[in-house]
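Worked Example 4.2. Consider the chain below.
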Amino acid sequence: MPGTVLLLAASPMGRGRLVDAASVLPVLAAVAPAVLSGTDTANVVELADPLEPQAVLTRLRAAAAAPGPLTVFVTGQLQLDRRQHLPHLALARTTPASVRYTGFPWHWFREELRLRPSGATTLVVDLHADPETWENLRSQPLDSGRGNAVHGRIAPPPSRRGVAQPSYMKAVATLLRSGHRPPLEQLHQQVLARLGAQAATNILLTAQAPQSGDPHAVIAAAVKAGRHTEADALAAQWERTAVRAHGPGSEDALHWAEVRADLAMFAGDPVRSCRTWLTVATARLAAGQAPHAPAVESAVDRAHHQWGRIDDPARARELGPALAELRLRVPGRKQGALDHVQQHLRQLQTQG
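Applying the procedure from the previous section yields the following structure tokens:
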């Protein structure tokens, strides 16, 4: 089965740039796609200094939906947004004041990759952190998702003025240009040996994904085969188990509700998907989570997206008021989201 490779290199323009991220892309692009992926053949998607987080999200979402192994190479710098203090991958237009709207939230990697089978996704990262983010990472490790393997490093802020080089990722590319891809944990160790003393000051990332009776893999296989009813039934079974064991507002129960919302989307049922995301968002708010919490924002954003895909005006009118009420509490990152809901509701009132 062919693999998929996403090459993402991003850093801000101007004085805020800590690392020349895009300089690594020609070196990576010189590696054969099959070697980058570790499969017989592979499709490679390259993103060089993207401007908009939504553009990155679109490419990541497409890569996550592709069958077969996925390897994501990420080079760039991390910055915290001033409101939630969450790490973002800084993009070309990112400034310290605009991170929340112009950066790519790191938790979006976790969100978009969560339905992939455990062990099918690998992230190779070479990241630099600004002083505030570096201090934050000491107590809040970077979370890339429990089902994904992660190898790489996070470097501290440069000690003097100037732009750093993505030396970890360049070493990865240089080693892979030999035409041989060792197991990535071995490749990671070989890269660290090349970096020498430089690696001693880095936060080193190395985590293997669990390989054993993962239910996400079974569900993903059912979706791939078009057995959407079976996939939802399996997820519903796990959701009931989580509710009995931990309660309806537990993270485990809400996780499986989110999985079912995604499965409804894959099955082409935006009504069920929207309704489920609305339920998840309401449950998270009722549990005391803040309106700007990533999981709450994500649930409302996804409900909004699925609502916009509903063709039946009557069903859209049914769900619209609940979405508008949530948008009042959870405006999200995209400006004008509440206005969009209200305007679309007015249009729906004139339709049969």
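The two ends are 47 Å apart (CA to CA). Residues 151 and 185 are 7 Å apart (CA to CA). Compare this with Example 4.1 before moving on.
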